[in-house]
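Moderator note: this is an archived Q&A kept for reference. The question asked for a predicted structure of one protein chain; the sequence and the answer are reproduced below.
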Amino acid sequence: LWDEIMRTSQFEARLKDVAKFNEEHVWRKRGLSIVPVKAAVGYSQSSMNQAGALVHLYKDGTLLLTHGGSEMGQGLHTKMIQIAASILRIPIESIYTTETSTARVPNTITSAGSFQSDLQGGAVVDACQRLNDRLSPLREQHPLWSFKELAKHAHEQGISLSATGFFKVPDSVGWDFKEDGKEERQVFKYFTYGVGVVEADVDALTGEQHMVRVDLLMDVGRSLNPALDVGQTEGAFMMGLGYMTTEQLVKDNKGALTTRGPYTYKIPAIRDVPLDFRVALLQKSDNPEGIYNAKGVGEPPLLLAQAAFFAIQQAVAAARLDTRRHTQGDAVVPSSSLWDLFPPATCEKIHRACAGEVARLAKKAT
């Protein structure tokens, strides 16, 4: 991963370009940062590493699929449909899903930890294989039948066309709080890896910033759906970018939260999307621990947004080191002084850290 993104992002060459840019510009500075991530996938509590599914095959050849995961825009339903279609050998257009409900699949667990494709996918595999086992004798007798014909005749012959599935992670995975600690256990199922390279541009006069270019490379094993996984990577990064740059919680002197709406609490908007946004998935990667050799990808890329914050820090450092900014008017904070910048790196914080004109006048007034 590291070697690949160093090559594709042209990191070494761009470091020189950034240094040259900073030499040629007084009030605009840039920074370039690279950050890796290793995120655990799965639940450390063993009782949560289980899932169920329910499939109904109708005599017109359509399938109704229900699982215990919550679809929240991450494409979980799509991946479950793909898994069912591959096992039953039917087109995805013949498969329908319904909303998650404990009336259909009981005792569902939290949809979190980027682990639902593995858990719910395992349950869907089990349910579809059970259905396949019932249909196999009829399918072998009539190999030319369409799936619709197969379902119709199976119904006529009294073959059950409803099946439940269940999946459980092996007992060797997860933390058992009842254990005395002597037994060695694998706490998580596996790890998802990624690397991000971010180039940030900072206006030292106003504190405004934007991401010039972002390169993300994720190891998601053999992706179940590359389009979904790339979209999840982009979305997670943007969510993390908000945490790192704009989403500041402000409270009044009584402790009441004042940033309670979009006017005061700034989430990323369309203009915050990097000007050059490149996302890739590592090729020829396997994950024997995951469903169909894939890996979970929902949350890990969020951590790569730290690279944006560190790139902003570098740009601020370059602004403070530029002696040309310290030779006009009254003396500002010396470039050698200690300074800090904590996330979120808002415009106000960046401006103060750059020892800008407004900060200088404010300090002079006090």
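Archived answer notes: The CA atoms of residues 58 and 232 lie 33 Å apart.
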